[in-house]
Amino acid sequence: MMRRRRRRPRPAPTGTAPDSLRSLADRISLHIGTAVAPFDLDTPAHAAILAREFSSVTPTDAMKWGIVEPAQGTLDWSGADAVVSFAQRNDQLVRGHTLLWHHQLPAWLTTGAGDGTISNSQLWGLLEQHIFTEVGRYRGRIWHWDVANEFFTDSNPSVLNRDDFWVARLGAGVIPQAFRWAHQADPDALLFYNDYSIAGEDGSNAKSDAVYAWLQQMLAEEVPIDGVGNQGHLDTQYPFPPQFQQDLERFTDLGLLVAITEADVRTFVDHPGTQVPTNSLARFAHPYLYDQLMQACLAVPGCVSFTVWGFADGDSWVPAQFAGEGFAALYDVSLAPKPAYYALQQDLQLAVSGAPGRTTTRR
Ligand code: XIL
User: At residue 113, does pLDDT exceed 90?
Assistant: First the structure.
């Protein structure tokens, strides 16, 4: 197995509120992160919470191919640069997201690949160039890269999706190749495979099993994968998956790190503007599910970061994506902390004295 130099997590900056999520998490070497959109950095109230509470940031969309190269050869790094420099100013690590995914690709790329004006061999070249350009631009400034995102089917049994945009055209070998290129472009970045429902959220554990078997194969082939990201999008309609922690553990037993990369907990709400839960029990289920996610991470020493997919309901992707749902974040539409915020804070306070220390490097 490849040995590589690892960046040490940085201490929280002096002056950080002692009970902030980041200060508490820092005491157990856990990074607490959030997804962030560049325009949020210009909202002082939002930026203040971001700097105070979080020790890691993930650009929600700003590093996706469709955003950084809207027209072929025209690169726009404005949003990604803004997030990375905010992180540097505030002693935060950056999770890069994401290099190889079927969504949010540039229209010129999908159109060209669809009508045959971009051949498969040109597609290989474009992907190589994309990975070297983007990873190279931020070399030394990215802690984790979500190299590949969402390649497995939701069926039982689950399989690597042969109809995926990339796999259908370039074959399953496109995924390990993306990891190899990313590793060449930034040998210090830790490289992650990221997906949802890979810790029993599908009720069957089928997708977790498929990803686990694939990871074993990748590691046997010495593909430079350092970790697995479990997105962690939950819904109060469903119970917390009973094998969540064991599934994280078996990934770490392979020698990989794990991360919760996109946590949120959605529920049915009155209106996307106000996001008041329609079921009163959701007020209990919501902080409970956040707490369960965090406790699973805390119990697994190889779980090195816990990222929420936006910390404020006003910013969440949920109302636009899941009809009738919302209330998914830690802060409400007025940026007031919700019970879920205090649940995580309490978990971290307790963990300072109780949880095992993090393994910050791949074993
Ligand atoms: C979402 C963003 O939050 C939205 O702004 C965008 O319109 C669609 O993508 N899994 C992922 C994320 O890996 O990149 C997705 O983010 C949410 C699901």
Answer: yes
CA 359 to the chain's CA centroid: 19
Rounded CA-CA distance 296/246 in Å is 9
Active site residues: 150, 262
Residue with CA at minimum distance from ligand 1 atom 15:
60
Please tell me the residue having the least CA distance from ligand 1 atom 5: 317
Residue 317 in contact with ligand 1 by CB distance below 6 A: yes
Range 213-230 average pLDDT: 98
Mean pLDDT of 229-249: 97
Q: How far apart are CA 293 and CA 287, in angstroms?
A: 10
Average pLDDT over residues 8-18: 57
HEC string for 10-27:
CCCCCCCCCCCHHHHHHC
Closest atom of ligand 1 to 37 CA is 5
pTM: 0.94
**How many residues are given for the chain?**
363
> d(Cα 173, Cα 95) in Å, to the nearest integer?
24
Percent of the chain past pLDDT 90, that is, above it, reads: 92
CA distance 274 to 319: 11
Q: Which of 234, 321, 322, 325 to mutate to test the pocket of ligand 1 (most atoms within 8 A of CB)?
A: 321
